[in-house]
């Protein structure tokens, strides 16, 4: 019997009704599918019943990879690696539709890595259907001027349109997590602001939200060396707090920062 590893954030989805709802989000017949964190293969089995063109799975746990191979054999391609160490742009030569019950302990790290690595051309996926802790999902979809709005909201909504699909109760998993989960649907925006170095947006939001309850004057001056010209140009009031600036404003700040350091 396979035991879930707490160190890998494993909680296996076992509720078939929830699995069916997740797979009803998009028609996967004849699509190239990537599943991240398949665990014991409950979602995998249901994906195969929908007759995808190809199904690849990424599973770090060696014991689970062996189990998946025993269950599904040549029906799936198993990548027994850490998802954070994989170059997703070289996974396959066609776009992938991604499903993932992401490990809670690295879910935001996975998402941020994928977002930062989205290229202007030859984007490696078309849709992401991903499970997060509800608290994390709430931060991802939060709008500015709300308490959950922050770095993750800004980075996630920069290149992606996001829709909430459903909440999932702890009873739908084994072992049961202590928190609710949420499934989100992500689609690439047709147009998004380009930055020379995507990590600059991460850097700026980290500085601004390091003291999220305080006015932005101090982090602004850290970035722009007390130069108020840019604040005037962008019509930014420095007595605001980080959550009061919308995504477009942070992207404009990042653009001005890149001009400053170039």
Structure notes:
The protein has 262 residues and is α/β, with parallel strands linked by helices. The chain folds into two domains: 6-188, 3-Layer(aba) Sandwich (Rossmann fold), CATH 3.40.50; 199-261, rRNA adenine dimethylase, C-terminal domain (Helicase, Ruva Protein, domain 3). It is 35% helix and 19% strand. The chain is built from ten helices and nine strands. The chain has helices spanning 16-23, 42-49, 62-72, 107-116, 134-140, 151-159, 199-208, 217-224, 229-233, 247-261; strands at 12-13, 32-36, 54-58, 77-79, 96-101, 125-133, 160-168, 173-174, 181-188. It has a seven-stranded mixed β-sheet with strand order 4-3-2-5-6-9-7, sandwiched between helices. A two-stranded antiparallel sheet has the order 1-8. Strand 2 (32-36), helix 2 and strand 3 (54-58) form a beta-alpha-beta unit. The radius of gyration is 20 Å and the shape is elongated. The model has no long low-confidence stretch (mean pLDDT 93).
Which terms summarize this structure?
single chain; 262 residues; alpha/beta; Rossmann fold; Helicase, Ruva Protein, domain 3; 2 domains; seven-stranded mixed β-sheet; two-stranded antiparallel sheet; 10 helices; 19% strand; elongated
The number of distinct structural domains comes to 2
Number of helices: 10
Q: Based on Cα principal axes, name the global outline.
A: elongated
Q: Helix coverage percent of residues?
A: 25-40%
Structural class: alpha/beta
Summarize it:
The chain is α/β, with parallel strands linked by helices and 262 residues long. It has helices spanning 16-23, 42-49, 62-72, 107-116, 134-140, 151-159, 199-208, 217-224, 229-233, 247-261, and strands at 12-13, 32-36, 54-58, 77-79, 96-101, 125-133, 160-168, 173-174, 181-188. The chain contains 10 helices and 9 strands.
